[in-house]
Amino acid sequence: MASHHKLVFTGLLISISMQWTLSISEEELHASYWNNKARQALHTALNVQPNIHQAKNIILFLGDGMGVPTVTAARILKGQLAGESGEETSLVMDTFPHLALSKTYTVDQQMPDSAGTATAFLCGVKANYGTLGVTAATPRGNCRAVYGNEVTSVLNRAKKAGKSVGIVTTTRVQHASPSANYAHSADRNWYSDSDLTPEAIQNGCRDIAYQLVHNIEIDVILGGGRQYMFSNTTQDPEYPTYTGDRDDGQNLVAEWLKNKKNAKYVWNKAEFDAINPANTDFLIGLFEPKDCRYELERHASMDPSLTEMMEKAIKILSKNPKGFYLFVEDTGRIDHGHHGGRAKKALYETVEFDRAIGRAAELTSELDTLSVVTADHSHVFTVGGYSARGNSVLGVSRVLADDQKHFTTAVYGNGPGYREGTRPDVNETISSTNEYRQQAPVPLDSETHSIEDVAIFAKGPMSHLFHGVQEQNYIAHVIAYAACLEPYENCDLPPPDRAGSIHPSLLLLLMSLLLLSLCSV
Ligand SMILES: *[C@@H]1O[C@H](CO)[C@@H](O)[C@H](O)[C@H]1NC(C)=O
Ligand SMILES: *[C@@H]1O[C@H](CO)[C@@H](O)[C@H](O)[C@H]1NC(C)=O
Ligand SMILES: [Zn+2]
Q: How far apart are CA 257 and CA 262, in angstroms?
């Protein structure tokens, strides 16, 4: 696009002599541009054919806290990082053909959390706030009420059906979202035995780290969470002032490695890079004592990125001819960025998350792999306020507020961005820093989740079942059905499409070449 016209807007308020420039591509001024673009989209839509084969592989991407406003803002950020105005950019997830909305409330709360929601979309049953892998008959914190109320995850059912299974996350692997894949716990905070309440100990409940090792054989486990695996006398290898968190003296990594062939434990990037997927069948990588660092602050020499972890996982798991189930969560850090009222961290994490989704598409085939991207819940985060086209998504409005001060277009409904007294003025230099907290009218030391629906993006076998406005637990059912897992073993779907034989787009190309050669005769 050679010819960019510069349109110059003058601020609506003249109190400050400031000019806002924005670039609009010249072609957007013509009806033909929009008509052609829409015609192409229509053509694509008319050619969407549901794939009614069984899914061999399943990848569930969870953007923890990745509400629709976060997706929109991350899309703009991605474009702006590439030097574009951003609004017109597409995230990889934007290109998925099938979408639905997910109602995220838990049985007891309008505003959900990651544990109750993970139970819904991973196990297929709605639960209470703060509980994992149990029905709503288990009140939070009541260990005794766990027994008999356990629900089974799709990961568990995939393993039973002979698939390889894995968990990749940038949070601790015992965190609420990943742990609903394998644990049953009345409280999401029972990370290690030292977190258990007297009632939980008395009634024999096990901590989440213990369950990670003992409940289901998980082939690949990558993320943070080292401290919950080691005894309180074991020094952390990376931070010598840290020790493990376990009072029971157990070394759960050693437990996990026991009786496994071709199994490895790694805790840093060099060891991780040395893992050859071809001769590794089981891999546990724990790169931080608790959560991994924000992508913005990652030590690239010490910790692999989400994309790198996911890539290694897919290469190990896809050796199984029966296929695999992989849970990929970035965004523990999207959620944590928002809780801290720091939009920049949440949005950069979301862009990295989308990059992982793109990389997964290169490593798998849409013909036999069902990919689902969703969020557990949203946040009280939004972007607005008279922002011009191409305005930095972390920048300020082009008009002043009624108090004659600037304001960021990204804001929170509550949280630590609240300031006592008069509202501080702000400029883009300040609002673009990593630590900047967008303003919020309600003081809370942690910004809250939101109750609004979140999106489900899907592609691959049976992905067309994601349509309409659905309860969140519907997700686990579609995944189980698509892969003919319990309770849908009799799904009656034709066997997985043989990916890798001939790609449909290649077939199309061959056919059009054939047609061309016929026409030219
Ligand atoms: C470590 O665990 C032991 C029990 O094995 C306990 O007595 C002790 O208080 C724990 N230490 C810390 C620092 O938590
Ligand atoms: C932004 O605000 C800070 C703090 O008031 C100030 O030091 C800085 O010069 C301002 N930057 C711009 C570009 O106006
Ligand atoms: Zn949260």
A: 9
